[in-house]
Amino acid sequence: MKKWNLLIDVAKCFNCNNCALAVHDEYCGNSFPGYAEEMPRQGHRWIEIRQREQGEYPMVEVAYLPVTCNHCDEPSCMKGAPEGAISKRADGIVIFDPVRSKGHPELVKSCPYGMIWWNEEKQLPQTWPFDAHLLDKGWTQTRASQVCPTNAFQTLHLEDEEMQRMVRDEKLEVLHPEFGNKPRVYYKNLDSYFKSFVGGTLEGMLNGAIECIADAHIVLWKGTQKLAETVSDTYGDFRFRRLDADGASYRIEVSDPRFSSKTLEFALKKSCHLGAIALEPKAAKAA
Questions:
Q1: What domain range includes position 63?
Q2: Number of domains in the chain
């Protein structure tokens, strides 16, 4: 049987909030019996864009992480919930019954991802129902997927075997697999949010003036392991992403035919800019 899944590419999200606005447009002022009561105008973020700022001047990056109900196959919210208050459909979607879940604020704290919201006016726990009322009418995409300008959201209707093959082939991940909830919301490029980066700027003397050094070759090492390599851009800048900021020692080696090789060691505790790295001209050969 085919089941619904959501794929979010973190690298493509730039915080336009179209997905969140589409959810508000669909559920604010609208109730869908059996699926969801109307969403409050303020205070609820059924799709929430979390933000992480990294680095330091002059090299700063901001990553965005869309988070929503994960429609888990082993949902924590169902454990201990009143009978019929929450159901797991055969197609993978989790539904909070707007009648039977009424008056149960304790359900809000049952989600380890923090994506159940309390509607004070209606005394209801609420979360995004995967636009199930639309999919049941024949829609093939959620509204969030439809309005995303970068295609960061993809709604997938696949057999479990096909979905897991896609997970393996594309190296997809879920949020906090250690929770054991088995989410049906998968992420691509999740490291761009949780991992760190290091960068720097190369400069050297050319034609009697200090210039930015473009097209130099930089290799990143961790111990004896070569992690990555890149070249500096027009402004002499380079950066390496998706690194563990655990205080471990790293090393960069810079080479350029116009300059002497340069080695720089550092410990990475957070995303950082190594500053201006001066390259020395190669010594003139003896006559």
A1: 11-152
A2: 2
